């Protein structure tokens, strides 16, 4: 059951819909700690949580017309924040899949920017991986992306692709084998 918003919240949401930045600040400021806690629990990283919440708030501001004055804004903000967390998790998963990220996300680094040589090498490596994936047959690439990068189960991927779970398992195995073969010693 969705509870209705309080009168003050109702008025703030209407002001936000008309473009009042100060009303937006008054509406979201009390909710930020709750959103940060949610994002930290989802991502396990304070800095990534802050980025996710900031991105969520920016998205809500841009899509402020979607706010419903009759519903609590916390539900909409929570949904958007969860979506931003899912995006971050997908990016993290893709980075791990391609070998560009470790497991520690809150490490203090000596410098804010990576060395230019590291950036260039990472870009070249990513380009090679992207090219190798583009060369995979579509049926192998689809299965690999759905299972390994989109986080679908083999059953879900099978439903999407209209094949059996065993076919998805085989396609993912073959795609990974081709990529491993291509990047052996990489």
Automatic annotation (TrEMBL):
RNA polymerase sigma-70 region domain location: 27-93
Keyword Transcription regulation (UniProt): yes
Residues in RNA polymerase sigma factor 70 region 4 type domain copies: 127-179
Keyword annotations: DNA-binding, Sigma factor, Transcription, Transcription regulation
InterPro entries, sorted: RNA_pol_sigma-70-like, RNA_pol_sigma-70_dom, RNA_pol_sigma70_r2, RNA_pol_sigma70_r4_t2, RNA_pol_sigma_r2, RNA_pol_sigma_r3/r4-like, WH-like_DNA-bd_sf
BP term (GO), one: DNA-templated transcription initiation
Any one Gene Ontology molecular-function term assigned to this protein's record: sigma factor activity
Pfam families, alphabetized: Sigma70_r2 (PF04542), Sigma70_r4_2 (PF08281)
PANTHER family: RNA POLYMERASE ECF-TYPE SIGMA FACTO, RNA POLYMERASE SIGMA FACTOR HI_1459-RELATED
Similarity comment text for this entry: Belongs to the sigma-70 factor family. ECF subfamily.
Family annotation (NCBIfam families): sigma70-ECF
Protein name (database record): Sigma-70 family RNA polymerase sigma factor
Organism: Altericroceibacterium endophyticum
């Amino acid at each position: 059951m969705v509870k209705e918003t309080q009168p003050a919240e109702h008025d703030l949401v209407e002001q936000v819909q008309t473009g009042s930045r100060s009303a937006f600040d008054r509406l979201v400021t009390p909710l930020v700690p709750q959103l940060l806690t949610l994002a930290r629990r989802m991502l396990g990283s304070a800095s990534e949580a802050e980025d996710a919440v900031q991105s969520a708030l920016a998205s809500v501001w841009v899509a402020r017309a979607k706010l419903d004055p009759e519903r609590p804004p916390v539900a909409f903000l929570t949904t958007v924040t969860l979506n931003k967390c899912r995006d971050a998790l997908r990016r993290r998963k893709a980075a791990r899949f391609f070998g560009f990220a470790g497991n520690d996300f809150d490490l203090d680094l000596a410098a804010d920017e990576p060395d230019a040589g590291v950036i260039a090498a990472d870009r070249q490596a990513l380009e090679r991986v992207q090219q190798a994936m583009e060369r995979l047959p579509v049926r192998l690439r689809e299965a690999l992306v759905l299972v390994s990068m989109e986080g679908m189960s083999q059953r879900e991927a099978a439903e999407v692709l209209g094949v059996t779970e065993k076919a998805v398992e085989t396609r993912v195995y073959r795609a990974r084998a081709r990529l491993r073969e291509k990047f052996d010693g990489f």
